[in-house]
Design a protein that fits this description.
Helix content is 47%, strand content 6%. With 429 residues, it is mostly helical. It is globular, with a radius of gyration of 22 Å.
Length: 429
């Protein structure tokens, strides 16, 4: 651990302390003491693989959390912030940890502590944050933002901007921007069998996914409602340390979906599903499931005759949230394997993370692009006709990187792919 000590002023971190011994404002990191520093996580950590620095490994970050909790490290130190804020949140380390260290919850708490510091956000950053938080709650603001983004993409507005996050954002999301969904009154049936969680990207990227999901669910005889008043799942705020904002969104969703309701809540995006399922002390966490899992259960009782059998070869991208959080890595292959005409091609040697990592694809472009290209190489090695990914952020990232390949396969969500396989849609063409 010498290199980690050198990075932090040569200080040797003290032995683990009990929660009561920690500075009050830094409590909540005691579970970092569970780490036994075995190193089994190191081969699975994308940031350690990229940087080769102990402070960018899971055990290095846990050691820094211990130092932060014990008051030995300055929470405003740039190097400390760089290591803790640079984590992609893939939680691959958590999935292989023999000591079962809850790394995801700890990195969220560490970032919350960093965000609470006086110099954490400049005035302009606070203004942007307030605007973002309003947009996560208000569909109108998201609609306006989506219209602006699509207009900027058509006009090539990124050419007028200096190099930086805004230019990167416009250029990197251009190929994924899509119109807002147009939903009919049937989607608001109060006698529904299930409730659909739309997320906050419906006005930017996932409008067609939402429409496709409704088409597939209706074809299978499901009655679907989209509760009004729902908002972002809270992942964006939670993983950047803004706990109070995440809690406000959580309360809003619990109210929208009914605290006493027992109907399943289907999420289209694996990141949203992972966040909903980790809502603390709420029935909503047990009701949330993926579209994939719901359809797989539904097909067991019928519906096998609604699909076309046109042959198609597809590659599956299984995102970190599905492999490491919801642990549903078998569900999507299992569902697609039930469909006639579908062949799943082999995907070998893919990195543990594609590099999207929430907003990391915008804030850490060099590493994100390298990981994303390696992921694309693995997905396209057996020349599939389509790539299917159940995560919107991963899809945006991979689609942007794949745009440079003229003959690259399209990247679709499970909902859009399944809708394209409906026999009734094929017959209308």
């Amino acid at each position: 651990m010498e290199n980690l000590q050198e990075e932090n002023g040569g200080k040797t971190l003290a032995k683990p302390l009990g929660t009561s011994d920690r500075p009050l404002r830094f409590q909540g990191l005691s579970e970092a003491d569970q780490c036994v520093h075995c190193g089994l996580c190191l081969p699975h950590c994308p940031t350690y693989g990229w940087h080769g620095v102990e402070g960018d490994s899971p055990r290095g970050r846990l050691t820094l959390m211990q130092g932060l909790a014990q008051g030995h490290l300055d929470p405003e130190a740039p190097r400390l912030r760089s290591h803790l804020e640079g984590c992609l949140g893939c939680r691959s380390c958590e999935a292989v940890c023999p000591a079962r260290v809850p790394f995801g919850a700890l990195i969220d708490r560490a970032r919350e502590i960093l965000d609470e510091q006086p110099g954490a956000a400049p005035h302009r950053g606070r203004w942007q944050r307030r605007l973002q938080q309003r947009a996560l709650r208000q569909p109108f603001l998201r609609t306006l933002g989506g219209l602006t983004a699509r207009a900027g993409a058509r006009l090539g507005a990124e050419r007028l901007l200096p190099d930086g996050p805004w230019k990167r954002s416009l250029a990197h999301t251009r190929d994924s921007l899509a119109p807002s969904p147009r939903l009919g009154p049937a989607a608001r049936d109060e006698e529904a069998d299930l409730l659909l969680f739309t997320g906050c990207m419906d006005r930017f990227f996932t409008g067609p996914d939402l429409e496709a999901a409704l088409e597939v669910l209706t074809a299978l005889g499901a009655r679907v409602a989209i509760p009004r008043g729902q908002a972002c799942c809270g992942a964006l705020d939670q993983h950047t340390g803004r706990l109070s904002a995440a809690q406000a969104l959580r309360r809003r969703n619990i109210e929208a979906f009914g605290a006493a309701d027992t109907r399943p809540v289907v999420a289209l995006d694996s990141g949203c599903e992972a966040t909903l399922r980790e809502y603390p002390d709420t029935a909503l966490a047990t009701r949330a499931l993926s579209l994939t899992r719901f359809l797989a259960e539904r097909l067991k009782t019928g519906g096998a005759d609604i699909w076309t059998d046109t042959p198609v070869r597809i590659a599956l991208h299984l995102p970190c949230t599905q492999r490491n959080v919801t642990r549903e890595a078998r569900d999507l292959p299992g569902l697609l394997g039930q469909l006639p005409g579908v062949t799943l091609v082999a995907v070998d040697a893919a990195p543990n993370c594609c590099g999207a990592g929430g907003t990391a694809m915008l804030t850490q472009p060099a590493m994100a692009d390298a990981l994303g290209r390696a992921t694309l190489d693995a997905l396209t090695a057996d020349t599939p006709e389509l790539i299917i990914s159940p995560n919107v952020g991963c899809s945006v990232h991979l689609r942007a990187l794949g745009a440079a390949q003229a003959d690259g396969p399209p990247i679709l969500s499970p909902a859009r792919f399944l809708a394209s396989r409906l026999a009734q849609r094929q017959s209308r063409r």
